[in-house]
């Protein structure tokens, strides 16, 4: 595939390859092939019933991990095209970045990390890598999806030093090296991190207002929202209700996308990033907001944390979700035969319990909890 791209962009023809070598596909680049494997994976389908902020059964139109991932992919591809980056790699990383998320969102991650405190802990980014490296079982010649280095590198967004050392021990100079020696991932991976933030800030505003937990009037305390609310009304004086909210969010998204494009172009030029090696040796990410937009985005994030994520109704749901997962972990640890045979037979039983629970959807976890405890918490 003869595609002209900047030297700093990832190139599937120069990929560091897969852990288990495979012949090239006749009609797809390696990054396209990764994207397709992710979309067809079981873990990807499960995202449709995993919490973003609101449980799936609380409303048909609230975002789930699946719709969130699709929005990240859309924003990522749009920005990647303007910057000349590899859109397929961006899409693959965006679609896979939450595959390791537990049921009930961050509440589930916190519970599993607590349950695994003396057994290696639990990080959802590392779990996403475990899903694509080990837990998916679709192919005759290997466990996992056998993705390219660049896709796996982007999936591992965060990693503790301890876990990075464990990965490095079995994969020298691999996807965890940058967490030990400093440096950055590809620009495509950096872009997915920023697109993730843009997406969840915007859709959590939408879902928060739709749920009735926050009012548009409250949101006008946030400079980023107020600016684009005023611009929407200036352009459409009769606008109100949902249309006004949607137009405000649309303008917010566009402003952030254009800001990232401009700020990244300036950063790439300033750092003279001529190739992928220069990208990885940089001391800070090059895909970024401008300082002003970074400040505004952070203010919106703080508002959502205080008024939505910590809302009493959301916290009440979180408390019940935490109880479900604690009870499940204890039940499986006490009686592993309650899990499928391939999990029950594993030597590291604590990790097997964490893997099994992390793979559950919200509603399956609730059903399993009712089956094992006889309690109905939801």
From TrEMBL:
PROSITE patterns: HD. InterPro entries: dGTPase, dGTPase-like, dNTPase_2, HD/PDEase_dom, HD_domain, PHydrolase_assoc_dom. Gene3D superfamilies: Hypothetical protein af1432 (1.10.3210.10). Residues 1-31 are annotated as: Disordered. Residues 65-201 form the HD domain. Transmembrane segments: none annotated. Keywords: Hydrolase. Belongs to the dGTPase family. Type 2 subfamily. This is Deoxyguanosinetriphosphate triphosphohydrolase-like protein.
């Amino acid at each position: 595939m003869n595609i002209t791209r900047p030297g700093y962009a990832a190139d599937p023809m120069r990929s560091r390859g897969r852990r288990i070598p495979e012949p090239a596909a006749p009609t797809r680049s390696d990054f396209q092939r990764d994207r397709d494997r992710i979309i067809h994976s079981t873990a990807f389908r499960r995202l449709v019933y995993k919490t973003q902020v609101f449980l799936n059964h609380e409303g048909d139109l609230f975002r789930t991990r699946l719709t969130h991932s699709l929005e990240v992919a859309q924003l990522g591809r749009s920005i990647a095209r303007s910057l000349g980056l590899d859109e397929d790699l961006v899409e693959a990383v965006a679609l896979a970045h939450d595959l390791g998320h537990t049921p009930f969102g961050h509440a589930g991650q916190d519970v599993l990390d607590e349950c695994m405190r003396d057994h290696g802990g639990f990080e959802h980014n590392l779990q996403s890598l475990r899903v694509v490296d080990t837990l998916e079982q679709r192919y005759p010649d290997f466990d996992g999806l056998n993705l390219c280095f660049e896709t796996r590198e982007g999936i591992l967004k965060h990693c503790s030093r301890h876990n990075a050392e464990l990965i490095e021990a079995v994969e020298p100079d691999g996807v965890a090296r940058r967490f030990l020696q400093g440096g950055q991932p590809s620009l495509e991976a950096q872009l997915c991190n920023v697109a993730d933030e843009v997406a969840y800030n915007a859709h959590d505003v939408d879902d928060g207002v739709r749920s009735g937990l926050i009012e548009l009037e409250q949101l006008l305390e946030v400079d980023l929202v107020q600016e684009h609310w005023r611009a929407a009304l200036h352009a459409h004086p009769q606008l109100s209700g949902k249309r006004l909210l949607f137009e405000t969010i649309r303008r917010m998204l566009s402003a952030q996308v254009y800001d990232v494009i401009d700020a990244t172009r300036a950063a790439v030029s300033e750092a003279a990033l001529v190739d992928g090696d220069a990208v990885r040796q940089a001391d800070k990410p090059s895909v970024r907001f401008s300082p002003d937009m970074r400040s505004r985005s952070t203010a919106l994030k703080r508002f959502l944390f205080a008024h939505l994520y910590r809302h009493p109704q959301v916290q009440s749901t979180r408390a019940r979700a935490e109880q479900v997962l604690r009870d499940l972990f204890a039940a499986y640890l006490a009686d592993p035969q309650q899990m499928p045979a391939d999990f029950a037979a594993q030597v590291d039983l604590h990790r097997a319990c964490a893997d099994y629970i992390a793979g559950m959807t919200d509603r399956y976890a609730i059903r399993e909890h009712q089956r094992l405890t006889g309690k109905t918490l939801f």
